[in-house]
Amino acid sequence: MAQRRAAISWVLYVWADHAFATIVATFVFATYFTQAVAEDPIKGASQWVLMQTVAGAAVALLAVPLGAIADSGGRRNALLGVSLAVMVAATLGLWFVKPEPSYVLLALVLAGVGTVAYEIASIFYNAMLPDLAPRERFGRLSSFAWGAGYGGGLAALVAALVFLVQPDPPLFGLDAASSEPVRACVILAGLWALVFGWPALVFIPKPATQRPWGEAVRTAMAELRTTLRAAVADPVLRRFLIARMLFMDGLVTLFAFGGIFAAGTFGFTAREVLLFGIGLNITAGLGVIGFAFIEDRIGPKSAIIISLWALVALGTPALIVTEPLWFWVFGLALGLFVGPAQSASRSLMAHMAPPEARSAWFGLFALSGRVTAFIGPAFLALATTMFQSQRAGMATILVFLAAGALALIGLRVPRR
After folding, report:
1. By the 8 A CB rule, do 127 and 359 touch?
2. For residue 189, which of 19, 65, 155, 354 is within the disulfide window of CB 3.0 to 4.6 Å?
3. Domains located in the chain, CATH noted
4. pTM
5. pLDDT digit string, tens, across residues 111-161
6. 216-248 CB burial, b ≥16 within 10 A, e <16
7. Between 375-387 and 390-408, two packed helices, what is the crossing angle to 10 degrees?
């Protein structure tokens, strides 16, 4: 009973934190910042991208050391709680960002801190997976959690639109002239994360041995070089992280520029782009839940490879078609395989990571998803400029996905 409650709490946590991803980082606050807070949309977009870049660099610097501290001190649960608290506080603070350029710095700092906390929390969260299920069910639990993430983010977004953004006049006495209905969305996101995230801190068992914080930090720093050297020397881990860097560059670019491509090539309106984004999240959730019962039978490596080749197969006609209807068909079908590729990556890492350095290895896992994230957009921009075609730019995504799949072929996953 306690094990099941812990597993449910673990799944519920990702339902909680994806409100930040959808409301703050993607759809609502990011748009509000570029259109209402910044001096103009172009400058606002540049400032937002710069903030994301700085946040990514911070995650890259902090991921492995904090993971090592969690391992050496048995403080995985405590560090998850600290990360959640920082993310919630930063999110709630965004309420004070008014639609004036003088609030640009406050918005960027708070959004950046929230982004770093969101990403760092995933290190400790992911490292808990092997403690919550037997090895033969890693894939199932990981898939259920990833599906819950899509569901939670989507539910929070729908609640924000229905109760805060769309009502005219606004509900709860909010002032539309000062953008309070949109700003209230971050209050919803913060409370959503807090309400649904706390069970993970209470019901997931803590490690049996916990060192004092000072001793944990000293031990982690002393052992960090050895841990990194052993990890980097591991040919299986090295190959997997390179493969993940490649296909994550493709997936990140797909989500970042899919809406832009739809608007520029097929003339999607802002409303249609939003509906497409919602539809993509729905199909991604359905796909990852469907794979929950397949991955543990075929193995996480096979699940990733199948998902990546399916994305290439569906992405090719999505770039060729000229009718919006067919773009909707192939575009939404892509979502069915986005979630399984990401979820299976986590369960594959859970199979590979040694128990004594699990958080540090998941720090490297987080690093691999961040450190080269700029390369995909850079190649897309270069191809778009060279060929004067958005289709050519988006085609670079397929190259990254295929390269990641090829890098995984022949990978021998050790049984730890």
Report:
1. yes
2. 19
3. 1-229 (1.20.1250.20), 234-416 (1.20.1250.20)
4. 0.85
5. 999 999 999 999 999 989 888 888 788 888 998 998 899 899 889 988 998
6. bbebbeebbeebbeebeebeebeebbebbbbbb
7. 140
